[in-house]
Design goal:
This is ABC transporter. By secondary structure, the protein is an alpha/beta fold. Helices cover 39% and strands 27% of the residues. Helix 3 packs across helix 4, helix 5 packs parallel to helix 6 and helix 8 packs across helix 11. The longest helix has 16 residues. Bound molecules: adenosine-5'-triphosphate.
Length: 319
Amino acid sequence: MIEARGLRKTYRGRKVSVPAVRDLDLDVAEGEIFGFLGPNGAGKSTLMRMLTTLLPPDGGEATVAGADLRRHPRKVRRRIGYVAQGPATWRLVTACEELVMQGRLHGMSKAAATRRAAEVVDALGMADFADRQCGTYSGGQRRRVDIALGIVHEPVLLFLDEPTTGLDPASRSDVWQEVRRQRAAGTTIFITTHYLDEADALCDRVAVMDHGTVVAVGSPAELKRAVGGDVVTLRFADGTDAATAAAVLAKEPGLQPVDAGRQRLRLHVPDGTTAIPGLLGALHEAGTRPVAIELHQPSLDDVFMAHTGRSLADEEGPA
Ligand SMILES: Nc1ncnc2c1ncn2[C@@H]1O[C@H](COP(=O)(O)OP(=O)(O)OP(=O)(O)O)[C@@H](O)[C@H]1O
């Protein structure tokens, strides 16, 4: 559904240039929910804006929904839906009016657009509020309207740019449900997110993006399996203790402290239950000890960390 080779984009300013997407290759199969996970500034929106024809790439090739991005951008536009980050609705019109207008923009007759708007309102469970002005909607309701606007013309491929950013948990799960429903109806979904749990729960495959490139791609389970072993997180009373522990444990054979965060140290170990006594022994000898220990299977954050040396959760706040 999407095939991209060597896509790149640099924003050139008078003083500095920002290489936002660098030689990126991508394959998205028909019918999957494909996620791009990465921190703020990783290049996710830039990539999406290129794939949706809104921003010309500096280089590279892509076929999107069966049409060549450079040679046939109009064909691409006809076949895709795009839901940008901010709300796309006017405050004073109703969702129904917006949907009819959107249908007409896609070339439908008034009667066809009205019919399709009613269909979409029904499919997305918007009947309770679709005749009210958009300015009165909750965040989740507004996001649902945004998605509705993206699917009025029945695209085969739907792009969603951070669709749940800023939503409360209930609204997020509404959006997830809607995304799954669209996929079940045959639409391929391309989604960007910086929420670890969203990528994990919603996406069939995830590309982990950092500094304009893909550092890992696979299903969430595959990516986590590839990290392997267990993750031990040690928490310390202060940053000095954490730094001492990092220095001590770095000398232990087979141990690699991967994240010497403020008061925390994370370690990848082949088997957590057998590794913990040895870790504690080494720390005790060095005169330091953790205030808490956690043992868990690798998460997508551990995947991100294994490839970048940083924690996405730390960069974005709790996800
Ligand atoms: N118009 C622009 N001019 C200059 N730099 C830009 C422009 N748009 C984006 N950038 C820079 O390009 C890089 C990638 O930005 P982009 O918006 O694609 O990231 P993102 O992964 O979508 O981030 P976020 O999660 O915050 O939306 C960032 O460093 C950003 O500051």
